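User: Earlier you gave me the apo prediction for this protein. Now I'd like the version with pyridoxal-5'-phosphate bound, so I can compare the two side by side. Same sequence as before, with the ligand SMILES added.
Assistant: Got it. Here's the input I'm using:
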Amino acid sequence: MSESNEKFRLLPSVDRVLQSAEVARLIDLYGVGPIKAHTRKLLSELRAQIAADRLLALRCDSEEALFDDFIKQLTLRAQAQSVSSLRPVLNLTGTVVHTNLGRAQLPAEAIAAIASIADQACNLEYDLQQGRRGDRDSHLEQLVCELTGAEAVTVVNNNAAAVLLALNSLAAQKSVLISRGELVEIGGSFRIPDVMRSAHARLVEVGTTNRTHLSDYANAIDKDTGLLLKVHTSNYAVQGFTATVAEAELAQLARQNELPSMADLGSGTLIDMTAYGLPPEPTVQSILESGIDLVTFSGDKLLGGPQAGIIAGKKSLVELIKRNPLKRALRVDKLTIAALEAVLRLYRDPDRLQKRLPLLRDLARPVAEIEMLAESLLPMARKLLGHIATIRVISTHSQIGSGALPLEVIPSVALELTPIAEKGQSDFALKELAQNLRSLSRPIVVRIHDGKLIMDLRCLQSEELLLDLLTELATRY
Ligand SMILES: *Cc1c(COP(=O)(O)O)cnc(C)c1O
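And here is the structure of the complex with pyridoxal-5'-phosphate:
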């Protein structure tokens, strides 16, 4: 008998695996179907290895040793498959509203609101007073109107959808006037000219990249004009010899010509950011007060809530938007409405907002507090990672992110890690360290700058969690 034939005999049968005491526990956890499938797959891989006379991944000096290894491998595979692809990470990038990391973290009130309706029937589109079909916007409309001074409100999946829907409702087959300085592209391929095309609106650029005057808009108005649009230049700023038209002037020009006006605010905040030591950002209220008919803004940027796009303003225009069949395709679900309503409620009590809204807690966190956290972490971090990197505390700058207040940075404090590496290996060591951080049980995402790894501590809430993760990291080296 050849050597490989003997190895085939060492392999357990599917039945033996499934009936073993160790696997009973796995079946209990993950179900018999998946465990049977893993067993079959692993066996066929091992058979292929034996047939190809390749080194077996498992010990094959005895049937029992191989069986032990087999069970270990099976356990790992079953565990790996049960980990969600979408999972929490530690955002130490210093960008607070990080689109790739899920933007705003929800407050406890929003999570409770989601939980309270998630496993129940609810009056999403049911008018309890009248006992008939209702409107899902009704749960948010009054609250947004109260907070912003708008006459009417509708909510869709995100702000990109809000802009698309508003343009299509108000200006399909018509032209939309917009300043050349505001033809923005924001991340994820949202470009105003492309959105305009998708909405079947015709883009008419007015003014120049750096200067646009009211007369540029006025001269461009003709019988085809459907809307005057302003777009918040979220992720860049035009500096130097510049001129833009204020919302109030644009709104007045629109009214004189019996045209609607709209502002896409992007971030859209409801509070005076300067009151929290942050750079100024136009509020939704102030833009509506200036006379602009409609504003659109995101739910998960500066508002600090779930992903959503809010359209607020003049009732007749909002009614038009609600009647557009596209609204049906872009509407929000009950979980979003529950979370958004809870977040908006918090704005009724501005005094406690910073305590309750994670976004504001992080953005307005005092530098002194972050510095204390860094100094407290430093000795333990050095002890754990001293053989991997040299570590020091540095001053750095956080960003708000998601295009809000693009040029403004907020002072912060970070742990700076310089990997210890042989000559010529520092690039590799840096990449390896960052990769190891991303593969921890709670992945840590950091910023890399100038050959160093920067852990901005602004968004770190649990010192203990970070130390646990650094302990886990240390065991990898
Ligand atoms: C972020 C942004 C959008 C898109 O908002 P989402 O909520 O990401 O869809 C649109 N316009 C401006 C100006 C923005 O800043």
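For your comparison, keep in mind: The pocket of pyridoxal-5'-phosphate is lined by residues 158-160, 163, 186, 190, 231-232, 234, 264, 266-267, 298, 309, 402-403 (CB under 6 Å).
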